[in-house]
Design a protein that fits this description.
The chain is α/β, with parallel strands linked by helices. Helices cover 36% and strands 15% of the residues. Strands 2-1-3-8-7-4-5-6 form an eight-stranded parallel β-sheet, with helices on both faces. α7 crosses α8. The chain is globular and about 65 Å long. The chain binds arginine (ARG) and manganese (II) ion (3 copies).
Length: 312
């Protein structure tokens, strides 16, 4: 297994400072070493440098449109390059608006994708339905083919080609969905395992059904977009938009183990870790170490234990 890590220190998809420190705190918690220890070849591509955008006035209600557009164009090219080099891409955010560029670059490199979006939120508002104007709550709308007629022309967004079909998208962990988002999800018939379904079915059946649903016909490469706020805030409080009633640490890790098992994982986003949102050092620590554990789970770490294949 080889992993290519891209740091995306970007926060303008939402209003709270600190989330741009995500890539550095996740690396500082030993991500590279841990992945290497479990047998991965790791290449760190470093942090992207995003251009300053001046006069980035809101368009309608939508904030920092030009900065988000240009940052994601950069990121899309970076993920494309990591895939061209033959690695599984790991994008460390940064806020969840970065999924636009990450999914786009991934698809540019490999074609059709399955997207597994693990989040308390659906992030599928269009620029017109968004109640907050924050683009991290809109990411999916820009890449979904079925929503293109609903997306107005925006500066620095013209490079985006919608590249995901609604039938190739599965949500897990939802519990804070805006009314317009709920309407969109129902209209498009998107597969959703909200926290209700996690309660009803248990995480094992949710993952079984996710894989049955996505792989019933052709097996497409998986894009796993993991918002740390999917996990319960008692475990991962250091994030911008925590919502009570989330996935347990164990459910969160189980998702990564099962995705790894498919052998189809091709790109991962780990987003919304914000060290400035923790009340104490312990809260930050718990959030960051959970993010690292989730990534280790994506790349073969098993809770039963592991040993190298040439072990004797
Ligand atoms: N639904 C809200 C909005 O559109 C919250 C989105 C939160 N998204 C996130 N990536 N944490 O603004
Ligand atoms: Mn290409
Ligand atoms: Mn979220
Ligand atoms: Mn999100």
């Amino acid at each position: 297994r080889s992993v290519g890590i891209i740091g995306a220190p970007f926060c303008k998809g939402q209003p709270r400072g600190g989330v741009e420190r995500g890539p550095d705190v996740i690396r500082a918690a030993g991500l590279l070493h841990k992945l290497q220890e479990q047998g991965c070849a790791v290449k760190d591509y470093g942090n992207l440098v995003f251009e300053e955008v001046v006069d980035d006035e809101p368009i309608g209600r939508v904030k920092h449109v030009r900065a988000v557009g240009s940052a994601n164009q950069r990121l899309s090219e970076a993920v494309h390059a990591v895939k061209r080099d033959g690695h599984t891409s790991v994008m460390l955010g940064g806020d969840h608006s970065l999924a636009i560029g990450s999914i786009h670059g991934h698809s540019a490199a490999v074609g059709e994708l399955s997207v597994i979006w693990v989040d308390a939120h659906a992030d599928i508002n269009t620029p017109l339905t968004s109640p907050t104007g924050n683009i991290h709550g809109q990411s999916m709308s820009y890449v979904l083919r079925e929503l293109q007629s609903k997306i107005p022309v925006l500066p620095n967004f013209s490079w985006i080609r919608p590249c995901v079909s609604a039938k190739d998208l599965v949500y897990i962990g939802l519990r804070d969905v805006d009314p317009e988002e709920h309407y969109i999800l129902k209209l498009l018939g998107v597969k959703v395992f909200s926290m209700s379904e996690v309660d009803q079915l248990g995480i094992a059946r949710v993952m079984e059904e996710t894989c049955d649903y996505l792989f019933s016909k052709v097996k497409k490469p998986i894009h796993l977009s993991y918002d740390i706020d999917a996990i319960d805030p008692s475990v991962t409080p250091a994030t911008g938009t925590p919502v009570v009633g989330g996935l347990t640490y164990r459910e969160g890790v189980y998702i990564t183990e099962q995705v790894c098992q498919t052998g189809l994982l091709s790109a991962v986003d780990m987003v919304e870790v914000n060290p400035l949102r923790g009340q104490t050092e312990e809260e930050v620590q718990s959030t960051v170490s959970t993010a690292v554990d989730l990534l280790c789970g994506c790349f073969g770490r098993l809770r039963e234990g592991n040993h190298p294949s040439d072990y004797r």
